Amino acid sequence: MEIGIIGLGKMGGNMAERLRRGGHTVVGYDQGPQSSRDVSSLGELVERLSGPRVVWVMVPAGDPTRATVRDLADLLSEGDVVIDGGNSRYTDDLVHAELLGAKGIGYVDAGVSGGVWGLENGYALMVGGDKDDVAKVQPIFDTLKPEGEAGFVHAGPVGAGHFSKMVHNGIEYGMMQAYAEGYELLAASDVVQDVPGVIKSWTQGTVIRSWLLDLLVRALDEDPELADITGYVEDSGEGRWTVEEAINHRVATPVIAASLFARFVSRQDDSPAMKAVAALRNQFGGHAVKSIAKGEAEAPA
User: Fold this and answer.
1) How confident is the model over 245-255, as a mean pLDDT?
2) Predicted TM-score of the model (pTM)
3) Protein fold of 166-266
4) Residue 227: count of CB within 10 angstroms of its CB
5) Closest by alpha carbon to 125, among 199, 56, 224?
6) How confident is the model at residue 270 (pLDDT cuts 50, 70, 90)?
7) CATH superfamily of 2-157
8) Residue 278 Rama label (left phi>0; alpha psi -120 to 50; beta)
9) What are the catalytic residues?
């Protein structure tokens, strides 16, 4: 079938290629003039597609996605379907579905996982939307998903796909933090002499084996002491939203919350909070503090 893809970055470009390999006709558009786009505007993309049209939006969440959906609402026709495959917050999906629905345009939200490996391995897809709209675009999902029965779910109505992906990414935060803390403890030990080897040994036969662990092994193969990487870690939104939704639903998610806060700490060269802790220990117990000017521990005179 025909599909237009808006956003040809690392994920969108590879998805377009996987769909082409699967026999679909893809018309790609990206704002970057140096991209491998097929058309130079949204209007041209819509014109190139036969009705009923299917357009997949794969641009950054937030304002870029909102603006794109608004533009498509003016360009598309009744019976067309828009798929948002980015990491939008599920509350945005409700707004988009209402906007497009008023013009008879279907809306499907698709949480997508697979990263740069999805081209060859397939993408895990968590989808929300009306069952008829999902059915219209099912051949697209069937091509993008991994082989086998798993890897695709129609999770529920509009919003369910991105809500599921939000929770997925929150879990990912916690798993990565656990592996990272384990790595640091191994590296700090005087007993363990082959830290990369220990982590690699966990990839077979253990209860903590996973694809994330395989990727950590790959990273350590390339840089055994991770010397070329700084410890600054961004969060792209889903972890925060997961914690917020946990609060809204009165669900305890201490691991996910702690992993999110750990990312905040990673961005501080010299934590103001820990400065306050050092000052307090010095005040009540006379514990030594390290002077910035002298770079050494000082006790009160």
Assistant:
1) 97
2) 0.90
3) N-(1-d-carboxylethyl)-l-norvaline Dehydrogenase; domain 2 (1.10.1040)
4) 6
5) 56
6) confident
7) NAD(P)-binding Rossmann-like Domain (3.40.50.720)
8) alpha
9) 165, 172
